[in-house]
Amino acid sequence: MRVSLGLAICLTVASPATAADDKPIAFPTSVKVEVDAAGVPTGVQASDKLPDSLRDRIEAVVGDWRFVPAAVDGVAAPATTYVALGVCAMPDASEGLNVAIDYKGNGPRPLERDVLLPPPYPIEAARAGMSVQLVAQYLVQSDGSVVLENVEYADDAKASTKRAFTPAIRDWVKQMRYEPERVAGQPVATRIRTPVQFELSRPGTTLKAMHKHLEERQRDLAECAAAAAGDDKSRSIAVDSPVKLLKSG
């Protein structure tokens, strides 16, 4: 997760049904998946904000995946988890859709949004020109509230840097709310690690230049698939989810 200061960009992704004929669309989303005691999905629910054709395609693909089931006292049990995906859709010549789906991980899901919003850049840190990379580890409790456990910095991080950014991470985590995973119908706690990069934007960067760069990145399906895959180093990871992906595709 990257937090940049100096240039705010709001990108509205068009529905694949209304996108230009040769324009691929890449976006993140999440899917609610109910898994039985054998690791087979029995219910897959994609976002109702997606077009029907795309939602049906995603649900069909994820429905064919297999998972290592959860367990209660060593006995396999049904569970509910939320699978994070990178999706790329591109209209083809027959007016259908070519769709690439990339598994990002699974665990609890942020309430109200598919994607976790980044923390605000601390004002004093920005004024001082500070940038940093860190990892926030927190526990999503069974009631959906979140408790910060640790903020990990590089070994060479200065004490002043930690003092500047740790309160921002603490406040960010405090306001989080999640839909917890469930095992045998009961909500469970899950631990999550989220890399966060605070960086000041480069001088001379313009909104027009950023849009041009994004268009170049999405010229063909291969590039779009790469965009859908995203940066694996910046995604949140549920380190102890009771459900594990066994096989996709």
Summarize the helices and strands and which ones pair or pack.
Blueprint: E1 2-5, E2 25-35, E3 41-45, H1 52-63, E4 66-68, E5 70-72, E6 75-77, E7 79-91, E8 97-107, E9 109-110, H2 123-127, E10 132-140, E11 146-153, H3 159-174, E12 178-179, E13 182-183, E14 186-187, E15 190-200, H4 207-217, H5 221-229, E16 237-238, E17 244-247
Parallel strand pairs: 1-15
Antiparallel strand pairs: 2-3, 2-7, 4-17, 5-6, 7-8, 7-13, 9-12, 10-11, 10-15, 13-14, 15-16
Kindly state the percentage of residues in helix.
Answer: 10-25%
In angstroms, what separates the terminal alpha carbons?
Answer: 27 Å
How many domains, as an integer?
1
- Estimate the strand proportion: 35-45%
Please explain how this structure is put together:
It is a single chain. The protein is of the alpha+beta class and 249 residues long. It has one domain (2-244). Helices cover 21% and strands 38% of the residues. The protein is built from five helices and 17 strands. The chain has helices spanning 52-63, 123-127, 159-174, 207-217, 221-229, and strands spanning 2-5, 25-35, 41-45, 66-68, 70-72, 75-77, 79-91, 97-107, 109-110, 132-140, 146-153, 178-179, 182-183, 186-187, 190-200, 237-238, 244-247. Strands 2, 3, 7, 8, 13 and 14 form a six-stranded antiparallel sheet that branches. Strands 1, 10, 11, 15 and 16 form a five-stranded mixed sheet that branches. A hairpin with a 2-residue loop joins strand 13 and strand 14. The longest helix is centred in the last third of the chain and has 16 residues, at 159-174. Residues 4-20 and 217-221 have low confidence and may be disordered.
